[in-house]
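#struct-pred

JT: dropping the chains for the assembly here, can someone run the whole complex?
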Amino acid sequence: MMDMPFLKDVLIPPLLEGLVVTLKLIICSIPFGFVTGILIATGRVYGNRYISFLCKVYVIIFKGCPLLMLLFIIYFGLPSLGISFSPFCAAVIGFVICNGAYNSEYIRGAIQSVKYGQMRAALALGMTMRQAIMNIILPQAMRRAVPGISNEIIYLIKYSSLAYMLTCIELTGAGKIVASRYFKFTFVFMVIGFIYLMLVTIASKLLGMLEKKLEIPGLIK
Amino acid sequence: MSENITVVVKALPFILQGLAVTMSMVLEALFLGLVIGLSLAVGQIYGNKWISGSISLYVWFFRGLPNLVLLFLFYFGLFPLLGLDVSAFVIAVIALGLRSSAYQSQVFRGAIQSLGEGQMLAARSLGMSKCKAILNIVLPQALRIALPGWSNEYPILLTDSAVTYAIGVMEILTRGNLVVSRTYKPMPLYLTCAVIFILLNYGGMKIIHLLERKVRIPGFGNGER
Amino acid sequence: MKTEDNLILKVEDIHKSYGNTEVLKGVSFEVKKGETKVFIGPSGTGKSTLLRCINQLTLPDSGRVWLHGEEVTHSGKNINIYRQKMGMVFQNFNLFDHLTALKNVEISLIKVRGMKKKEATEKALEELKQVGMEAQAGLYPAELSGGQAQRVSIARALAMDPDVMLFDEPTSALDPELTGEVLEVMKKLALGGMTMLVVTHEIGFAYSVANEIIFMEKGRILESGPPQKLVNNPRFERTKQFLSRLSELYKLGDEK
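RK: done, full complex below.
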């Protein structure tokens, strides 16, 4: 089954190109997904009735709607309303919306786990609600949300493969094309699987290190 | 607008047939994952280092692989290679089930480990064999502790099931797409499918929470200890 | 004290190490039918490990244990039979948290002894009555006080009709006001002729109930003897010091 020349000359070059696209997809999605998560979570906890309700509906919809479904709506559906994106953009938008919904749940839980005394103390010092959230609550909550958010980043790496279904040729797509042409499905998908496993393993190691670094002594997650 | 509604109404019976496919795929995979996942958890904790080592490897493999890649690997690669002629649906159930078993095993493992060794010691002190102790004392408690984490598998499998569109399983999304390709009305049809998924997710979780309340026992997960 | 030479348990030269620390350095003793032996000594001297070595929940590195002349050590699968005959009560109860008090007592009767459900329930209720817990039979462990939980765990062990009961600091995890009810049950058991090995700091209990007090230190038996002799006239200065500290804490002679 091992076929060195095939691996080296035929498979690896397109896979590397695909890998670059995969990495771009992930790296573009992470910061926006993070910010979306914070916005939705704070809106849900501190917003007025309407904002809080809207944020809740956002979470129900985008946690409930399969990501692939969402990607189809964005890429194949929206153009019929005159809004169209490149495959890459459509994928990133879908990832951000979905990632944000999941992140917001972790951040909300973390915000609610910060004791109310912290908010009271901040307000007693003369901070506004906004200042208290930004300077006191979120810095504590974000640390507690880190494990959950790391988890979502790992998911993102794996879900990025769905971009192929929008004809965005990333790692999985690049492999699929070679596999179909040379009819070497098992081998090619093993190699691709291996690359994803490496990505996921490296990412979890890095994120684990980050978690260690952000830990506050004496504060239990 | 009324044109959109007619398209949806006409397509609905066809799409709803996919509901049965989606649900049976999800439930079968959930069950497969439960059976395998539970055995893996027990093996990982009570097995010798070879058994627990290979289980860790299994978990790492199935958790690290994207769903789509696994489906492609099974559908285009492994199953034809092994000469297995089975439907896309069966392959989907197996792929989703194996993947889910890796996740579920970690939920169960955490639950078993959270029990502490006292329960095992007490059971053994009464003369129960290890096997009996696991079956009668450890698992009944671990399953209850694992329930909240375990019920998360349902929405995960539900969203994952849509990806089986890629290998042509006739579930909700695949059917939606088929109608789109005939009618060129993507938006109303996709939104219909999305609403079905969201309702399945939301309704399913409500039922699961009801069940959770039903099997609740004092001292388990309601802050009494 | 019983006079007939009715040997139940024989423990010979038990050694046990965890890593580099030797917890038990060769412990031997014998127990006759109906005897109550109480082990006292500073914490970390291997008393609890010793009890667990007897029913093999902890495997000793060397040494042997006999129950009724049959070897318990190296007994393979038979250990599950011997364990039924050696009831154990744990410091933190270890009641099965998913089962009611009644079912806690029942389960080993059904699963290990193979008793019929109805028969097991009857016997379990009787055992609960023995420890004064029949009224709480339907409650789950999380709904019981520490003292009640410990009494249920005693009933659970008794249900297997053991030849000897091993008590591993049964009152250490209890609030002081709850120790009395557990000690009361144990006293009743001892007076009823049960053979018992008890690891405890309750010197008052030891003084009034034990046939023999065994003082352990650093993995060895330093000295042993009948309570009156050991408490009033110990051979070693260390025993004396330890006992006087204990009696300050637990008020010797403060018996009901």
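JT: nice. Residues 176-191 of chain C form the longest helix (16 residues). Chain C has a mean pLDDT of 90.
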